[in-house]
């Protein structure tokens, strides 16, 4: 994977709306990007400490952006598999809507990494925000793709 470093003074800090309405929507529709800022990986095959090296955008900030497929716990089920070799990502709080022009275009979920196995896992300082499409955009695209920010 080619890594890109931004010039001093430039930052990649898209808003929640931009992540869903531009990046995620273009990704699920198969459209190209002019600038490759978000890596595509199977996030749950890696431990959080390994993820910074997987990002194609080397930033001075402690944030990394990834497209990752939604992995199902069971082939015909709706539960998402968020476990890694050494732990799991646990959801915290409620999903929050991402709005554009007073319409809900996506949802944002916050997850915290725990080492060990549920329910006795030990909480860490690793936090992830996961974005998914909602509404009419979800119906016209492949819903199995999300953006995760670590």
Please give the alpha-carbon distance between the first and last residues. 18 Å
H/E element sequence: EHEEEEEEHE
Name given to the CATH homologous superfamily: NAC domain
Specify the helix fraction band. 10-25%
Task: Assign the CATH topology.
Answer: Metal Binding Protein, Guanine Nucleotide Exchange Factor, Chain A
Largest sheet: 6 strands, mixed
Whole-number tally of structural domains: 1
Class by SSE composition = mainly beta
Binned strand content: 35-45%
Q: Compute the gyration radius: what is it?
A: 15 Å
Please state the overall shape, judged from the principal axes of the Cα atoms. Answer: globular
Counting DSSP E segments of at least 2 residues, the number of strands comes to 8
For the largest beta sheet, what order do the strands appear in spatially? 2-4-8-7-6-5
Average pLDDT taken over every residue: 84
Low-confidence stretches: none
Task: Count up the helices.
Answer: 2
Which keywords apply here?
six-stranded mixed beta sheet, transcription, nucleus, NAC_dom_sf, two-stranded parallel sheet, 37% strand, 150 residues, DNA-binding, 2 helices, NAC-dom, mainly beta, Metal Binding Protein, Guanine Nucleotide Exchange Factor, Chain A
Describe the model.
- The chain has 150 residues and is mainly β.
- The protein has one domain (13-149): Metal Binding Protein, Guanine Nucleotide Exchange Factor, Chain A, CATH 2.170.150.80.
- It is built from two helices and eight strands.
- The chain is globular.
- The mean pLDDT is 84.
């Amino acid at each position: 994977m080619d890594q890109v470093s931004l010039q001093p003074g430039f930052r990649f800090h898209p808003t929640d709306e931009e992540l869903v309405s531009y990046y995620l929507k273009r990704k699920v529709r198969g459209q190209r990007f002019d600038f490759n800022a978000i890596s595509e990986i199977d996030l749950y095959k890696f431990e959080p400490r390994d993820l910074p090296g997987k990002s194609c955008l080397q930033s001075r900030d402690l944030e990394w952006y990834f497209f990752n497929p939604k992995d199902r716990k069971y082939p015909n089920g709706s539960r998402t598999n968020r476990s890694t070799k050494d732990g799991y990502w646990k959801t915290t709080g409620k999903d929050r809507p991402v709005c554009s022009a007073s319409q809900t275009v996506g949802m944002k979920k916050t997850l915290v990494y725990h080492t060990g196995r549920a329910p006795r896992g030990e909480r860490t300082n690793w936090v992830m925000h996961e974005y998914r499409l909602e509404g009419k955009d979800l119906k016209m695209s492949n819903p199995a793709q999300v953006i995760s920010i670590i």
